[in-house]
Amino acid sequence: MSISRRTARSVRILGVASASAALTLGLAGNALACNISEFSAVAKCDGTKGVISVTDKDPSGVKATVSVFLQSNNADAKLVGEQVVEGTREGVTIDFSEDWKPNATYRIHVKAGNQVDEDIKPNLVTPSEACESPETSTPPATPSPSEEPSSPSEPSEAPGSSEPSEPAESASSPAASTGDNNPSPAGESNLAETGSSSNTGAIVGIAAALVAAGAGVMFALRRRGASNNR
Question: In order of start, what are the domains of the chain with their CATH numbers?
Fold first, then answer.
């Protein structure tokens, strides 16, 4: 049985349409498939705490397990953590708390069903400056004792010098009054009454000289009278 030319043409057109549909479905499937290029990671600070953030921009919403490893000498030193994420076209971000050090290297691995099982390339390298902690902040300078203003209520003198001197004077007063009440010798009282001072000795010397002179005069007169009687 021979196939007519018209039938052959119809079969050819149907084959081309089927191939086009298959190609279109294949492209659409690849567009909706999860891909490692849809994942990204960054190290940042949340206040004073370090954080590693991973963003999934998979429009198909395939569940993916994200694992973060700290690297040392090109090997895994420790597992920071694992989380499951379902991406969207706008992107979904998950955070891993990590007190990362400057210039540290982290490997981020993504496992999404049978579609993705690989690392985000290149590995994540943290910034050269760590997050600032409260302990590293500089405390306010405190004034030295010499710079502190003195309180108006503080006395300017030492506590010992602020005591009044009246008790000492009152203590010495009874001794002075006791000496005034005791009777003194007559000579001293006369000198005190006449107001004598250190000139008393000179006056006594002059008086003695006058007495001696008077005695000499009397002796001379008596001798003259005796010679006249002879």
Answer: 36-125 (2.60.40.2420)
